Amino acid sequence: AGNYGFQAQPMGFQGGFVPPPIQSQPTMDGAIWMPIPPSIPNCPPGLEYLTQIDQILIHQQLELLEIVTGFEENNKYELKNALGQRVYFAAEDTDCLTRNCCGPARPFTLRIIDNLGREVITLHRPLRCDSCCCPCCLQELEVQAPPGTTVGYVVQNWHVCLPKFTIQDEKRRDILKISGPCVVCRCCEDVHFEVMSLDETSPVGRISKQWTGLVREMFTDTDNFGISFPMDLDVKMKAVMIGACFLI
């Protein structure tokens, strides 16, 4: 994926001082947050968490009103590490008319918050098509970290039957490729999107939609996703991979 995609993150501290670990504390809703990591030079604030993990689990929260009435609410998500500790909380910010008229194709802004209450990542998706009949107006998502500072993009690539995407850096340079299966809705099994190097010869990670059970799949639109990536992948590209998951 090139040197840009695999920059090891500096973990040293000046003067040899290493701050003591911060213990996980439950919040009012019972969630256990991941301990706050120390600041790292040249790392966007709030992305220090991503230097310590190689996978993220994304759980969409069930909305009772949406289940009962079918009225589309703003989606909310928990982003957890492999230990089940909450790393971030994400909330959609779109108006009622857009949500219920445009459905899954709607434009959205998604705000990702850390355990200090800071908005550390902002995702923007404009209104676009995703049909092979409209190759000139395919899906695109911008990733900002922190808000106002673009760190990358996820753009859909035209293909007759396969869902394909490209991860780009802030200068629109292609960094990674994503390829999904021909049939993205499969019964009783997970669906995997492979993240590959730019020449599509080396696997870099994976984005997986997890099967949540027949009842939940039939009667709700809530999804669970898993993202895996190399531990030493640049945190900006990890943030863009999170954005790619939400776009998918």
TrEMBL record:
It is found in: Membrane. It is a single-pass type II membrane protein. GO terms for molecular function: phospholipid scramblase activity. The keyword Lipid biosynthesis does not apply. GO terms for cellular component: plasma membrane. It comes from the Eukaryota. Its cofactor is Ca(2+). Signal peptide: none annotated. The keyword Transmembrane applies. Pfam families: Scramblase. Keywords: Calcium, Lipoprotein, Membrane, Palmitate, Phosphoprotein, Transmembrane, Transmembrane helix. Belongs to the phospholipid scramblase family. May mediate accelerated ATP-independent bidirectional transbilayer migration of phospholipids upon binding calcium ions that results in a loss of phospholipid asymmetry in the plasma membrane. This is Phospholipid scramblase. It comes from Loxia curvirostra (Red crossbill).
